[in-house]
Amino acid sequence: IRDQGDGLVGSEMCIRDRDRTVRIGNPTNAGMTYAVREDRSPVFVVRQALLDRFPRSIEELGDVRLTKVNRYQIREFAYARGGRRFEAVRDEATGDWSSGGEALPEEAVYRFLVKTLEAPVRTWSAAPAPSSEPDAELRWTLADGSRGRASFWPDRVATVEGIEGLRASLKLSPPEIPTF
């Protein structure tokens, strides 16, 4: 895939079962997309519905989620933002969530975890974490006892513990402290 700064200018796809290469062009003003195969000389039309599933930029090829942490494997978490803190724990026997002894709705807990753990990423860049204190932070413990942390800064920058030297530029700001 070639990107000249303003999106894809074409793409190349290799069909491995027959080792053929197909070159796909940009859509025309008439909405047609043409392609050529190296093993066949005529140009042919490609159905747009098939191409709609292909990435339109180099960034779209990367993972667009902040983490790949499985929310269902989280045993406990703590989220701090703006001087406030929220903690929740999942009962291993029943799977029920609670905070400070109060039951929490399971669906709402998982929605919050998705908003935070799978925050949509605009781009990843090779850069260290900002030197200032993060505006928000999510810490979690998984069922196997492993721990993790995601930190968020006001300018929609985020880092994930274990992914050193990379920072994410998020599409959205991190969520507020949950009120279940």
Would you summarize the structure shown here?
The protein has 180 residues and is mostly beta strands. It has helices spanning 48-51, 106-117, and strands at residues 2-3, 8-15, 20-24, 34-37, 40-45, 74-81, 84-90, 97-99, 102-104, 121-126, 136-142, 147-153, 157-160, 166-170.
Describe the protein in words.
The protein has 180 residues and is mainly beta. Helices cover 9% and strands 42% of the residues. It has two helices and 14 strands, in the order βββββαββββαβββββ. The chain has helices spanning 48-51, 106-117; strands at 2-3, 8-15, 20-24, 34-37, 40-45, 74-81, 84-90, 97-99, 102-104, 121-126, 136-142, 147-153, 157-160, 166-170. The strands form two sheets. The protein has a nine-stranded antiparallel beta sheet, covered by helices on one side. The chain has a five-stranded antiparallel beta sheet with strand order 1-2-3-4-5, with no helix packed on it. The longest helix is centred in the middle third of the chain and has 12 residues, at 106-117. The protein is elongated, with a radius of gyration of 22 Å.
Give a quick set of tags describing it:
180 residues, mainly beta, 9-stranded antiparallel beta sheet, 5-stranded antiparallel beta sheet, 14 strands, 9% helix, disordered N terminus
Q: Tally the helices: what do you get? A: 2
Shape: elongated
Helices and strands, in order, run as: EEEEEHEEEEHEEEEE
Overall pLDDT level: 84
The computed structural class is: mainly beta
Approximate strand percentage? 35-45%
By DSSP, the count of extended strands is 14
- Low-pLDDT ranges: 1-9
Q: Can you list the strand order of the major beta sheet?
A: 9-8-7-6-11-12-13-14-10
